[in-house]
């Protein structure tokens, strides 16, 4: 199994013995969309973020966070490296582009030298993957969260998906997506796999916001990972519905395709500000899953072995 690419360098998957949060944000700025609260400012929030992660490592054994803040989302690779070091929790950083509302000029072609061809975008991604992020030397370990908004990607989003597929093929990285409110996941998977990327190297995001077990089964049967990654965001979907959808996928024989996380994407979600925090999965959702009949092996599959297989591109069982 290939090494994980963390912000501190390569890490053997064998060293990850505790759970993984498969879709989170530790430093983020989505305020340009008119939502000034959609921020995790390293200058203000790195300390409480670090404290939360360290507490979860101590209490639940949290071992790894997949941090999916990419280009145009306020990414701060240096902050991620400092948070990982201070918390003792490994962090995987990302590259790519979110959905169209957050595309920078390099995607839209609005700025000097901005390229709009998928080939130009692929070259940019490969440079970051091989050379590091934003002058820090931190190399990303995942392409994500590659976004679309609606049932079908816009032309610009289509180019981003094509570029992400090509960059993943060139570098061996997996692709994690943002499907707005869970919609459009099948179209995302088709775009990525049409480029030659195997489905097992793709995770379709926010499927816990889509109350459609048939779509979840179709994605999983194709070989893709199905992300239940907004756990605790009750204003979008109840955790009771999320639990029902996850159990349906497991009962259909696809427990090995599900990934779990909380997608903390604004500072008011932090525990110190009264929010559910990164630990909601462990404190609330997993106990409910256990009460519904999940055993230790299933919990380990969902929270550790599945994300490790996804991140490394492995099709073999993880011990």
Give a brief rundown of this model:
This protein is α/β, with parallel strands linked by helices and 319 residues long. The chain contains 10 helices and 13 strands. This is Phosphotriesterase.
Molecular structure report:
The protein has 319 residues and is α/β, with parallel strands linked by helices. It has a single domain, classed as Metal-dependent hydrolases (TIM Barrel, Alpha-Beta Barrel), CATH 3.20.20.140. It has helices spanning 42-60, 77-87, 105-108, 118-131, 155-171, 185-194, 213-222, 239-254, 280-291, 296-312, and strands spanning 4-6, 9-11, 20-24, 28-29, 39-40, 64-67, 90-92, 94-95, 142-148, 175-179, 202-204, 225-228, 258-260. A six-stranded parallel β-sheet has the order 8-9-10-11-12-13. A three-stranded parallel β-sheet has the order 3-6-7. A two-stranded antiparallel ribbon has the order 1-2. Helix 1 (42-60) packs parallel to helix 2 (77-87), helix 5 (155-171) crosses helix 6 and helix 7 crosses helix 8 (239-254).
